[in-house]
Amino acid sequence: MSAITNLRDFLLFQELVEDEMMRLTQLFSSEAEDFLPGAIICQKDAPGDSMYLIKSGKVQISLPTDQGDVVLAELGPGKFFGEMSLLDKAPRSANVNAVENTGLYILTRKHIAFLMDKEPKIAAKMMLAMSRILSARIRVMDERIQDSFATE
After folding, report:
1. CA 74, CA 76: separation in Å to the nearest integer?
2. Tens digit of pLDDT for each residue in 79-130?
3. I need a labelling partner for 149 at 20 to 30 A (CA). Which of 15, 64, 103, 119 fits?
4. Distance of CA 65 to CAs 3, 41, 44, 70, 131, Å?
5. Spatial separation of the C-alpha atoms in residues 133 and 75, rounded to whole Å
6. How many other C-beta atoms lie within 10 A of the C-beta of residue 28?
7. Which of 10-14, 78-82, 143-147 has the lowest mean pLDDT?
8. What phi-psi label fits residue 82: left (phi over 0), alpha (psi between -120 and 50 degrees) or beta?
9. Where do the structural domains in the chain lie, given as residue ranges?
10. What's the confidence (pLDDT) of residue 1?
């Protein structure tokens, strides 16, 4: 599967036209990592300047508590995580572990700065898509919180 076909799997890039996709693909040509099951990808409170896009496999996002880890989500191909630290420069807000063999693309703050400077249309389309995706995630969390109060 070509990199451009793989990137098309991400909602983050679905608004991009073919030539924009080709230019974006060059950015990701060497920015990928593979993780074995159980590997730690991100740790809560660690510094972070990148987000990860899942090209294959599955990750688990969790928060450590005194009673053990609380699983927040499991994400698979086409999804992304780590965007909060990328955007707000704050430490990581959760732990992320590979559940199975997992391949990730890495998008760093330097990539975003490059896109904003050299490819502002691509950057704008990506940021709009990210805003929509994050808004949907917040709505889901709002529903979960509301449901948890309804069952008490």
Report:
1. 7
2. 999 998 888 989 999 999 999 999 999 998 998 899 999 999 999 999 999 8
3. 64
4. 38, 19, 11, 7, 29
5. 13
6. 18
7. 143-147
8. left
9. 3-150
10. 47
H helical segments located in 1-152 = 3-8, 18-28, 83-88, 109-118, 120-150
The residue type found at 54 is: I
Phi, psi of 55 (to 5 degrees): -90, -25
**Which tokens sit at 79?**
């999804």
CA 5 to chain centre: 18
| The two structure tokens encoding residue 82 | 């780590």
Whether the CA torsion 134, 146, 74, 65 is positive or negative: it is positive
Backbone angles phi, psi at 52, to 5 degrees: -120, 140
Statement: the pTM of the whole predicted model exceeds 0.90? no
Residue 111 backbone zone (phi > 0: left; psi -120 to 50: alpha; other: beta)? alpha
Centroid of chain to Cα 133: 10
pLDDT exceeds 60 at position 9: yes
**Cα–Cα distance between 99 and 85 in angstroms, integer?**
22
